[in-house]
Amino acid sequence: MALRRDAARNRAVLLRAAAEVFRTHGADAPLDLVAQKAHLGRGTLYRHFPDRGALLTTLLEDRFEILHRYTSEYEGEDLLEQLLVEICGLLADVPGLMAAVRGQPSAREKLAEVSERTIGLVATALERGHAAGLVHPGLSLDHVLVTLAMFDGALAAGRADGNRDVRPLALELAIRAVRSPARLDEPIPERRIPFPTPES
């Protein structure tokens, strides 16, 4: 039992360290930096995550699992806005993570599973928003998915432009794109899901 607890702890430490390393150095950073950040040996890293694809996929999967748990219990009619804020927060926390995962052939199946579940959540939130009159009347699921893709693209453009922080503006545009005209001037919701850090 103690060995299992140690293994679970090491896995969690490695994932938090990976998030910090990829956040700072990009998703193509050397995996040795992750082991160093976690204060664990390379052997421990590779026992849990045999390659970059396994580490990136697990990091993405764990973060979307946090998102799914939170939004599945969210009762407000403004679920779509809050979901967009949280997804944008996830994308911004480790910029380039989605693109890096897409570039790993071994990650395709897991990425498809995560995407399918997330699209299901977005579709449910969109239905709720339409029923409450909170979203733009002509808004479709494809509109929302493209809006998220544009947010991710804006992050990439901001990194290419001398690390300019475009996150607040990109998020504002994303939220205003889905709102009903009567709600355009309402404040942008705050993120509520904190993602793990190396110190937590």
CATH superfamily of the domain at 53-183: Tetracycline Repressor, domain 2
Helix tally? Answer: 9
Q: What do the pLDDT scores average to?
A: 87
Percent in strands: under 5%
CATH architectural group of the domain at 53-183:
Orthogonal Bundle
Helical content class: 55-70%
CATH class of the domain at 53-183, anyone? Mainly Alpha
**What Rg do the Cα atoms give?**
18 Å
Distance between the termini: 23 Å
Structural class: mainly alpha
Tally of DSSP β-strands: 0
Order of secondary-structure elements: HHHHHHHHH
Biggest β-sheet strands, sense, barrel: none
Give the overall silhouette.
elongated
- Unreliable stretches covering 5 or more consecutive residues: none
CATH level-3 fold name of the domain at 53-183: Tetracycline Repressor, domain 2
Kindly list the characteristics that best describe this protein.
elongated, 0% strand, 9 helices, Tetracycline Repressor, domain 2, mainly alpha, 200 residues, single chain
3D structure, described in words:
This protein has 200 residues and is an all-alpha fold. It has a domain at 53-183: Tetracycline Repressor, domain 2 (Orthogonal Bundle), CATH 1.10.357. The protein is built from nine helices and no strands. Helix 4 (52-72) packs parallel to helix 7 (108-132), helix 5 (79-93) runs antiparallel to helix 7 (108-132) and helix 5 packs parallel to helix 8 (141-160). The longest helix is centred in the middle third of the chain and has 25 residues, at 108-132. The model has no long low-confidence stretch (mean pLDDT 87).
